[in-house]
Each structure stands twice: as C-alpha cells, then as structure tokens.
Design a protein that fits this description.
Blueprint (H helix, E strand, L loop, with lengths): L17 H9 L7 H15 L2 E5 L7 E3 L6 E3 L6 E9 L5 E9 L4 E10 L2 E10 L7 E4 L2 E3 L1 H4 L12 H4 L5 E9 L9 E8 L10 E5 H7 L8 H7 L19 H12 L6 H17 L2 E6 L7 E4 L2 E4 L5 E9 L7 E9 L3 E10 L2 E10 L7 E4 L2 E3 L1 H4 L11 H6 L3 E9 L9 E8 L12 E5 H7 L8 H10 L4
Parallel strand pairs: 6-11, 18-23
Antiparallel strand pairs: 1-16, 2-3, 3-4, 4-5, 4-13, 6-7, 6-9, 7-8, 7-12, 10-11, 14-15, 16-17, 18-19, 18-21, 19-20, 19-24, 22-23
Helix pairs in contact: 1-5, 6-12, 7-11
Amino acid sequence: MTAFACPLGNGSGSREDLGARTARSALTDSESTVEELLDWLALCRERAAARIRRVPLGELDGWGFDPETGNLSHDSGRFFSVEGLEVHTDHHARGTWRQPIINQSDIAVLGVLAKEFDGVLHFLMQAKLEPGNVNAIQLSPTVQATSSNYGRAHHGSATPCVEYFTDPGRARVLTDALQSEQGTWFLHKRNRNVIVETSEEVEVRDNFRWLTLGQIHALLRVPNVVNMDARTVLGALPFAPAANPSARLRTTDERFGRALRRSLGVGEAADPARMTEILSWITRQRSRHVLVTRPVPLREVHDWSLGPRGLTHRHGRYFDVVGVTVTAEGREVSSWSQPLLRPCGTGVNALLVREFDGIVHVLVRITVEPGYRETVELGPTVQFRPHDHAHLPASRWPRFHDVVSSASGTVHYDVVQSEEGGRFHHALNRYLVVEVGAEFPTSVPEDFAWLTLGQLVALQRHSNYLNIEARSLVCCLQTLW
C-alpha cells in the first residue's frame, strides 16, 4: 500500500470547493479593523525592543572572508554565503558580467496554517521581526524559517508550529510548491510555499493572530505591512467568486471588479487547451534563451569593492552588501549579526491589465535572471529599478515603462511593499496594477503574453513558472475583486 492510499491529514474535512471557501474568507473582514491590527503590530514592535545597527562587514561575529576566494560566509558553514558569479545571457542583449550573489542551499519553509472558525477559513499569521525590514516587524507566514533555523543550527529556541509542515499527515495540504526568490540576488534559491489546514487546537502566542483573507487583503493596502513571504504563499490560493455571484464587490469600480471575478474563473479547468498553449510558450522561451553561469571568487568581481559602507558597486548602482548586528526579544535567538543585501533605490513592479470580452487579462513578460534554475520565469509587465537605468538611453529602459510612469491608464493598485527582511536591507518596490484601454495594442512582442488571473493562480501550483515579483502582484491583484 502506498502512502497515498490513506486519507491525508486531519483537516476540517470540508467537502466544499477550496476556491469557494477562499472567496468567503476574502469577503470576511469585520472581526478586527485595519487600525486595530496596525495597533497590534505596533505593540509587537514595542515588545520586541529591537536594536538593529549597521556595522562593517569585517566586524560581523561568526562571519568572515575566505582568504583565497574572498567569499563571505558563516564560520559554521550554514545559513548562506555571498559569492561571485559570472553570467552570460542573450536576453535583451545583456551580454556577460560578474556580480556578487547570495548562495543559500537551505530550502526554507514558508508555511501558513489554516483553520475554520464558524465556517470561515482563517490563517495564522505572525508578527515577525526581520533585521532588514524598514519597520522591523511585518505580518508574516505562520512559519518562515530555513532548515538551518528550524533545525536549530543557531542553538536557539524551537520554531513554533513547524511540525504542521514537517510531519507528514499532521494537517491537510491546500497548496504546496517549491518557488524561486529574486533571481538577480539569489543563486538557485527555492522555498517551500505551503498552506495546510488543521482542525486541532493550536497554541497562539502573543505575536500570532488568526486572520481572514479579507483582513489580510485590507492590510495589503497599507505600505510595508504584509511581508513578501506572506504575499507569495497566499497568492497561490484559488478563488471561486462565482460560487456567490451576489456577494459584494471589494472594489469601488464595479465594472472592473466583475471583470476580475470572471478572470479568476478562467483557469486550467475552464480552458485546458489555452493552458497547454501557455505551458508550450514558456517551454519554447526556455529552449531559445541562453543563460550560462559559473561561480567565481568574490575577490574577482572587479566592479564591486570592499569599503567602509560594505561591498559596493563602483558606480553606486544595483546593490551593496552591508553588515548589521541585532538584539531583540521574542526571536529564536535574541542577538546575532549577519550580512544583508541593500538595493539601490526603490524598484517598480507593475502589471498592465486590460479587459477582453468582459474578462480581465494580465500582461506578463518572460524574464531571464542569473539565479534562475529554469532559465526563464514569468515576471510582471514592468520590473526594474529606475536608479540602475538612469545612465541609460530611453531605448534601454524596459518596454512599457512609460505607460506605467505616465499613469495614462487607470491605476487600481499602487502601494510600496518590502521584500524579504531576513536577507535584504530596506528593499522596497512600488507595486502597481494599471488598467489600459482599447487603444493599447492587443498584439504584443513574443516575450509577452495576456493571461487571466485564474491561469496565473493555476501556474503557481507548479514550481518556477512565476517569479517572486509576479507572485506578489497576483496577491495584490486578488484584493481588488
């Protein structure tokens, strides 16, 4: 008998479609107001009493530069390292270059625990301190930890609730896939994005809280509250708003909201032939593009040099690698030091959307980044950091950036959000959803495609199709229906 011959997990046992349950949770937001939840996060920050201080990389306790390669790593050989990488690609004439990159072989668990209360699905979210967050604490998954951390390589306390994600059969799986992180900053990094459901009584600590999806969506309207890991996990949940067509719309634009609901309903099951075409298009792009990388010593990455501010680019572009020391209450370890990657300037991640036959379609783009395992992934319509392009002619800026910057369309979402604060220092991106009209061309270049929101959610059931920026934007887009 195989392991799949018996029922999986001890979840609620609900036979109702997950998409309908998710939609009901997204329409339930009255238990605590946004103001009350922000007050709770502020109280968690006060209790954490965090002190985060920038220090030179050479003063990091437990970290050091290898005398031969110059690579920066932890004395234990665990956690992660900063190394050099040589890259060659043909995508948009990028050519060949060298850069520092984070090498982290650990696969982290980004896990959200779900449970029904009074027939409504709730999600156990954590107010988690990360040293790179602009505001120290943000709303995070139930578990956000690498195997080094929950395996207690740091000799700290146990990770709460991790057993629901590591013990087979402990809970019922709702979504589960390995997904990439930022391909420009991480080498082949993957995390397990997973949501499981339990019917057990769960101990809820002071910095944890059960929230409906509606409450989380409301917080996504506030800058730097819902962290990157929560966005990438929750964005994979399927929706079936058609199960309750009379339910109130969450957007003030009734036409757009109804077209977005219809878009959620057009997924793999509704149009399997179109999904086959989409997968074939992605495979074709992976076959035709070149991405060759090889490790090089960090000391041989000549455009970056070590100085008082850390490891910096000679023109002040792209990113720095800086050091921090941290003391805080409530973490598995109360004090530590580490390097962080600090991007230069605020990025722009934008989706252009357009209605076709009463259904919202999303314009996504093939992206090639040095850390990808599969050469290409789907990214937002526009994904770039204006600071890094300021020296380039307009012809070298990303296609359609002018549509986003001119706000010539209808802006449905425009919020600055943080990227992961455990590895990045004050990494901010402006996330936008901009609707264009009939004047925008239906035909687009071959590395772009119009997909429905349902198709984008379906792709997240599999690994390495949507990049982290696109997955975050899917989660933001789901707040608008």
